[in-house]
Fold each of these.
Amino acid sequence: MKNKRFFSKDPTTLIIVFGAIGILVGIVGSLVLHYLFYLNLGEIEHKSIFTLKVLLFLIPSTAISLLLLFIFFLLAIVKKHTNTLFSTNKLLENIFDSIPQRIFWKNSNGEYLGGNRLFLQDLGLKTPNELLGKTNKELNFEPKELKKFEKEDIAILKKGWELKKIRNKRVIDGETYSFEGSKLPLRDKKGEVIGIVGVYEDITKNLIQEALVVRQGRLAQMGEMLSMIAHQWRQPLNVISAINSAIRLKTFKDKIDKEYLLEKLNETNEQVKYLSNTIEDFRSFFKPNIEKKEVLAKKIIEDTLKIIKSSIDSRAIDIVLNIETDMSLFTYKNRVIQVLLTIIKNAKEAIEQKNIENGKIIISTKKENERLTIEVCDNGTGIEDEKLEKIFLPYFTTKHESVGTGIGLYMSKVIIEEHCGGKLTAHNNSDGVCFKITL
């Protein structure tokens, strides 16, 4: 039973045991040989010489046998660990190849150490060996991509930066694909950067779907804008009509004079300027922002209110401004205005729907951790908690189907978080709901 337990032990234990016995036998053998070397064989009896000769044969042969056995077990354990390592590597390779994202890793010299199946596929490679040891310059990348990748790699290797939500476009087999991913520093046990690991995915279909939703929301918002234009034009058009009637009445009575006529013409001109400015404000809003520009926080709020304030005032809803900072930021101005218009319009509709007397919309700006926050709060009694968690989902609406499309807030979140690199959140307070934009 004891023998069975002994031989069932881990092969490493057997190697140590046999190795120790082999060393012991070798030491004893060397002592015997040393003794025989200095011994006067003539003084030893014949039987003793025979015994010594037998020992002289057995000791080396035993030592050699144990050494061979030691080598055998050593080779067995190496083979076992090699097979285990190979199986582990194969398992990891299968796992990486099963992941729907592209994965790669490379050393501090920019030489690729590996990549999964999708990554190799994008590069037009068939086996990992075709990637191993190569740099970006040796692969199928465009000059613009190489320059961009070089800057990213330097930022990671030299400064230890973690680059997230990196977007890139590539032409593969004649078609343009959009990718988004992250590149992170690969560190050793001491925390030193020894390479780069990257993960990214194909977001082409997502962007197409997103573009369709944004387009749908944009068209819906254009309809709302036209309604706002009509509302803002109504009063100046009425004023112009009244001036025209007054001039006509004076003319019929032959009581019109030059001074009166010039005064009324100036009043008409002021109203026309107002109409023209209104059109310009809306036209500027619908201009696409191709590039980010520096803009003051106060300017964003002012331009938003120019568009929507008239329709808010007509509903007897007060707009309260708490502007604590006028910091400048680098962003897409019109897209931020688009989000603010959606939030303010929703606040107006919530106040109207709940028949709130003394409706109020509070717009605040603050500087928090070197970033601008714009908060829009209303006193429309808020949104149920279970619905509040879903308001940013596409096609989810708290309004009646005939009124709400469910894409306004979804589109707003996409604009702020995906395009402007900020964050859009919502929470209830004691009076209603607050939307917070961080840029």
Note: The radius of gyration is 41 Å.
Amino acid sequence: MHRVRAMTADDTARCGTICYEAFREVAVRHHFPPDFSRPEDAIELVASLHANNKFFSVLAESDGCILGSNFLDERSTIFSVGPITVAPRSRDHRVGHALLTAVLARSEHLRAPGVRLVQAGYNTRSMSLYTKLGFRVRAPLAVVQVRPLARSADGFDVRMATEADLARCDEFCTEVHGHHRTGELREAIANGSARVVIRRGRITGYTTGIGFAWALRRDEQRRCQSAHRQCGLLHLDWISRAARQRRAIALVSRTTTPNRLPAQLDVTGLV
């Protein structure tokens, strides 16, 4: 029998190790590169999420043994779930179900209009859990790895975002997607990863960051961020339509196309 409880700082090393092992086991089994290159990277991520008071962090345990963990990002209008991971030896015992139910219950308690997460489409084990809870596929996404082209586009100026840009970015995001992501943007501005694009004297787009950050080590993240001026702008708010549905829960799922390019599916459901 297992129980779900709040995570503490003392739990982050073990939860991070499980996070690394869980992602690696699934990825290698399906012949994909692991999301984390080292256990230390996953431990650092888990510790940083737990230390952020805008994240709700929980774990599942049995007889004092940690079985898995989950997070809820509460920084903006639409909440975000994950990473949710279960130790490989503890799968098929409803641990993931308990962890997901815990954060969805909190989302409902806080009256979040929507929740989203990113899911690897080849992980059919977890996909079945989400569909049981009423999730639906919404739209495709893709993970693409390329070298910066070191080019600029005439008439477009990309610069670091500042606090003064928040209001316009919120307006822009709400206009396009139906909700804002102020909390995430504010943190991205503080850590230097946010960028805005200026055309004809006004902001026409923004990004909180470019790159699959979980899989990037610090030196790689810095290189990716330094390339933003060269490779342009991506708006990563792919789950916006959930904001228009009452008590909607959204998921983004990655699948595989015949040429092995990881595509993603935007999933949402009602509970």
Note: Helices lie at 12-29, 39-51, 95-109, 124-132, 166-177, 182-191, 218-226, 228-231.
Amino acid sequence: MLAGSLLTVLAPSTAVLPADPAVSIATARQLPLGSVVTVEGSVTAPTVFASTFSDKGFAVQDATARIYVSVVDDLGLSFHQQARVTGTLRDIGGLLMIVPASRSDVQAKPGC
């Protein structure tokens, strides 16, 4: 053993990280199409695009930007309700959107 040497012991982390850390919507909008992203924000347009895209999607925004989320079913989200969305970035008809793989990829806090 060398004189004055320092032995460092690293302990495993007990911190629990989210499976998909959320990024800002502005950051998500800059990623390439096909990227899987997770964003969090406030619902600003619940089911407003149903007649245009034949879905029951909604818009969500944070302090940086907003984006459309395309889902098949009406999830019953309310204006200003907080939502966490994981899905694939797609461009349909010139509109950038997130398309979740399943209903469970949209998590909403109760209330507004």
Note: The beta strands are 36-46, 58-61, 66-69, 82-92, 95-99, 106-108.
